[in-house]
Write a structure and sequence with these properties.
The longest helix has 19 residues. This protein is 50% helix and 13% strand. By secondary structure, the chain is α/β, with parallel strands linked by helices. It has a six-stranded parallel beta sheet with strand order 3-2-1-4-5-6, sandwiched between helices.
């Protein structure tokens, strides 16, 4: 098939599992800190989640930010408990915080089929993802889906300006963004007047943001597998 359009596709929690690995580790860390400081695990987990977002906004979406947040959390609760900081506990926290970034991701249902459909339907497929370049590219490579991907664009944080740069001289009217983050995927696209397909699934507080769901460029999905049907209507394609 000939050229149809330009697809800018988010990776984490749109194509591949991601938040689940963080949730599992955060539960282990909260239990560890609670056990060593005597505080309630739920209180520790809430504070850790607050620090996770605050540190990520300060440092960017780099892997070290998770360890910084939870080390800060541990030191804070140890101080409140009047207990010395244990280097062995800090080493274990660092080990646990590395797990989500090193785990081989599972693909989400319909993800592989959707990327293949996009490729075969004539879309230029760009993986549009935020984080550390080496980490994100390793995830993509390990997925086995690179045959359906034309470009990989990894940025420290997604913004309207960076999306404009990624689009370059492509016709915005032939572009769309699909992703699960209102903050990182949907708002930048709507700001530029680009069609935004929102995979409305669980995400972390960093991604929480109100967007104008009445905007004609906003489209809501419950999972990535719904995308071909919606694009077929927009671009008059067969599914």
């Amino acid at each position: 098939m000939g050229f149809t359009g330009h697809a800018f596709v988010d990776w984490d929690d749109t194509i591949a599992e991601n938040i689940r690995y963080f949730r599992e580790v955060e539960a282990q860390i909260s239990l560890l800190i609670a056990g060593r400081t005597g505080f309630d695990r739920d209180e520790v987990q809430r504070r850790g989640a607050e620090l996770d977002v605050a540190v990520a906004r300060q440092m960017g979406l780099v892997r070290e930010s998770l360890a910084v947040a939870w080390l800060t959390c541990y030191r804070e609760f140890a101080g409140r408990a009047g207990r010395p900081v244990d280097p062995a506990v800090e080493a274990e926290l660092r080990r646990l915080c590395a797990i989500p970034y090193e785990t081989r991701q599972e693909l989400l249902p319909g993800a592989a089929e959707t990327l293949r459909w996009l490729h075969e339907a004539g879309f230029e497929v760009t993986i549009w993802t935020a984080g550390e370049d080496a980490v994100q590219r390793r995830k993509i490579q390990e997925s086995g889906l690179t045959r359906w991907i034309h470009r990989q664009t990894v940025v420290p944080e997604k913004t309207a300006e960076r999306l404009r740069d990624a689009i370059g001289d492509r016709d915005p009217g032939r572009c769309f963004v699909v992703g699960n983050s209102r903050h990182s995927d949907i708002r930048p696209a709507l700001t530029l007047g680009v069609a935004a397909y929102h995979v409305d699934v669980e995400t972390w507080a960093y991604d929480h943001l109100d967007v104008d769901e009445e905007d004609p460029n906003y489209h809501r999905l419950t999972h990535i597998g719904e995308l071909p049907r919606l694009l077929a209507q927009r671009f008059r394609l067969a599914v």
